[in-house]
Structures are given as structure tokens and as C-alpha cells.
Design goal:
Shape: globular
Radius of gyration: 14 Å
Order of helices and strands: HEEEHEE
Strand content: 35-45%
CATH architecture: 3-Layer(aba) Sandwich
Strand order of the largest sheet: 1-2-3-4-5
Number of domains: 1
Distance between the termini: 43 Å
Number of strands: 5
Number of helices: 2
Largest sheet: 5 strands, mixed
CATH class: Alpha Beta
CATH topology: Trna Endonuclease, Chain: A, domain 1
Structural class: alpha+beta
Helix content: 25-40%
Length: about 120
């Protein structure tokens, strides 16, 4: 029996959280939502406040997971990140990073600085 997309996504996010924790990331939020959209994981990697987008692909037919975060998605993530920073009183000098954690089949690839802030 095939898992539905939402269940698979939740399972992959659990896998990614465990991986990030093992790498020393301090996770502070999961599935942070606003009217603009959602950020999968928010955490600290050293001094960096990092907004993580988790992408999963079971096969190559739709391209790699890393390729799935295009300009429109990046802009949406940045708007949600702005709201997160506003709600949590993050100062302008808090170093930010936007990372993608790509899961292709069972291989986890953490792409730091996957994209830069888009206004």
C-alpha cells in the first residue's frame, strides 16, 4: 500500500529533523505558517537563524529535490521568514540563511545558502 503524500512528507520531515539535530542544529519551529505560506523547519546553526525547506523526490522523473525550490517558492519563503522574524523580535543583525534539505529516495543532502533573500 502506498503512503499518501502528506504522510510521506511528514515522515521525510521527521527524518530531516533527526539529521539536522545530529548535525548540531537547534530546531525552534516546525511547519511555521502565516498567510503567505509555510516554512518547514526553523532552527539555529551556530549564530545563523536558518529557514529550511525540505524537498523529497522518490524518483528522477520530476527532477531532483534540490531543483524544486524555484524563484517563486524562494520569494514566498522569504516573506514568511520576515513574518517569523517580526513575531520573534529578531534584530536586523541576526545572521540569516536559507537552506534546502533535499531527500532523494533515502539520500539526505543539506544545501547551505541554497538561495539568498528575495524581497
Amino acid at each position: 500500500m502506498r503512503m499518501n503524500t502528506r504522510a510521506t512528507g511528514a515522515q521525510k520531515e521527521e527524518q530531516v529533523c533527526a539529521y539536522l539535530l545530529s548535525q548540531g542544529v537547534r530546531i525552534v519551529a516546525r511547519n511555521f505558517r502565516s498567510r503567505q505560506g509555510e516554512i518547514d523547519i526553523v532552527g539555529y546553526d551556530g549564530p545563523y537563524l536558518v529557514f529550511f525547506e525540505v524537498k523529497y523526490r522518490s524518483g528522477e522523473s520530476r527532477g531532483s529535490a534540490a531543483e524544486a525550490v524555484g524563484a517563486v517558492k524562494q520569494k514566498k519563503i522569504c516573506r514568511v521568514a520576515d513574518y517569523y522574524r517580526y513575531l520573534h523580535h529578531c534584530t536586523e543583525d541576526t545572521p540569516l540563511r536559507f537552506d534546502v534539505v533535499a531527500v532523494d529516495k533515502e539520500c539526505v543532502q543539506w544545501i547551505k545558502d541554497a538561495f539568498y533573500y528575495r524581497a
